[in-house]
Amino acid sequence: MISTRTDRPRKQIRRNLMQMAVRMARQPVKVVEGGRGVGKSTVLADEMVDVVHDMPRSTNFIQGATFQQILTRTLPSTIQSLSMLGYVKDLHYFVGRKPPKGWRWPEAYEPPLDYARSIYWYNGATYLLLSQDTNSRGLNTASGMADEFALLDPEKFQAETLATIRGQKARFENCRRYRNQTYTSSIPRTQIGKFMYKYQEEAMLNPDKILYLRASSHINADNLPNGWFEDQKRIMTPYEYAIEIDNIRPKALKGGFYPIFNEKIHTYTAYNNDYLAGLVDSKGYDIASFNHLDCRQDGDHYPHAELDIALDYGKFNCIVTGQESLGVFRYISAFSVESPKLTVDLVNQWCDYYQYHNNKVVNYYYDQTATGRDGRAPKTYEELVVDTLVARGWTVNRQYYGGAPTHVDKYNFWGIAMRNNDPSLPIFLWNRFNCKYLIESINNAEAKEGKKGIEKVKTGERKDSLDQRYTTHFSDAGDMLAYFKYASQLSSLGLWLPAGVYNLTK
């Protein structure tokens, strides 16, 4: 008997024009480039629900750049969007585990070997949680989607992930969602991420196969809180607002203070996925387990080796951390705090993150700027840093170098160091995700011809309206750490004599 009841609970779902266009699109490949708050998570939730019901017992994928990204950013927003649609975790689907045996849910035709990295739906449809820092080869999937698409390595995505959309043809080839691909992202902020624009070019050539949609946050205004746009305009610079809200692509910065820096060569990904997977225990996925992550999540962190740090001080305080191992110097993290938080707050944040570091020895590199103070504390920056570290159980090796190096010296140093081919220097690398704003600072640093040669343009540091994470603070701290630690090696070999390299503690 078919029920004719009309008093069942109903939920009103509101969609913006972009979300409706994606869901109704007939193209098998759909790419959304949208501003913050545009509703990208809802697009992915809609796609998942449609695939689940169109292809029961199918195997599909959600792609992320890292497993950590999936656990901390993709899954929380996806679960929230599914909840808005009326689908409840641990009732309609399970994340990271199978349902109770007594529920007798069907399995996918090609079930995963490890349910710790999958979403299992009540009709057997399954989504594999794929990341580029784990192996995705050898799988067979019927469809797929990706969050933060611009963060992916395009070559690995082509070779490892797209190649999986090949299986289950006999069962699903007549289904609408078979071999569907849905990718969402904000505007690429890296050169590597601009591979996404190739989909736009292909969409113009093959509009029946690829849909490429661009949308600003304003298209979702009806679903955003009152005053949201005013708040974003107040806390963002016009430059950031144009990118993050209006979805206007930034103009490329040519030259700059670090012209040799190349993200494809100089950056890497390194998470401890065994540790992260262990947080998804037998009880399944719980976002609370990922609210306060520490250095145990890092795969490039050597807990028995000393750490190197350098800071930049003022209303905006930041700290960069490095370690050298086997001829490679890695920038492994970069943290910051803004006013009203102080230098002490930043150092305590750093200590919290590295509380499980076994060798509590840190080499602190600083120049005369650390002997100043901002007026809100009775001690100098140097004293605040050292006293806080010691109070938290660290042994501090002070590496004081007096006057700061000139811009020309730093420019020339990096002109050699970033080539990664000098026998007197280590290879320099940057953690792509833990050093996000340090890398942004490097990419955004402009150069000009000054009275004494090349100078770094630092006018952004004096503009309170700017998001200081994107200005030159982080790159200055990164300069200090590498320059003071290694520039004298170039000098001792007679390859290049930097001005003013000296250590007053020796």
General description of the model:
It is a single chain. With 506 residues, this protein is of the alpha/beta class. The chain has 15 helices and 17 strands. It has helices at 17-24, 40-54, 67-84, 154-161, 169-172, 197-205, 228-235, 238-244, 263-266, 273-278, 343-353, 381-391, 407-417, 436-444, 473-492, and strands at 29-34, 59-64, 93-95, 118-121, 126-131, 144-146, 181-185, 210-215, 267-268, 307-312, 316-325, 328-338, 361-366, 395-400, 427-431, 447-450, 453-456. The strands form three sheets. It has an eight-stranded mixed beta sheet, sandwiched between helices. Helix 2 crosses helix 3. It is globular. The termini are far apart.
Low-confidence stretches: 499-506
What is the percentage of strand-forming residues?
Answer: 15-25%
Mean pLDDT: 89
Enumerate the strands of the largest sheet in spatial order, edge to edge or round the barrel.
3-4-5-2-6-7-1-8
How many separate structural domains? 2
CATH topology-level fold name of the largest domain? Nucleotidyltransferase, domain 5
Task: Give the secondary structure arrangement, pairings included.
Layout: H1 17-24, E1 29-34, H2 40-54, E2 59-64, H3 67-84, E3 93-95, E4 118-121, E5 126-131, E6 144-146, H4 154-161, H5 169-172, E7 181-185, H6 197-205, E8 210-215, H7 228-235, H8 238-244, H9 263-266, E9 267-268, H10 273-278, E10 307-312, E11 316-325, E12 328-338, H11 343-353, E13 361-366, H12 381-391, E14 395-400, H13 407-417, E15 427-431, H14 436-444, E16 447-450, E17 453-456, H15 473-492
Parallel strand pairs: 1-7, 1-8, 2-5, 2-6, 6-7, 9-15, 10-13, 12-15, 13-14
Antiparallel strand pairs: 3-4, 4-5, 10-11, 11-12, 16-17
Helix pairs in contact: 2-3, 11-12, 14-15
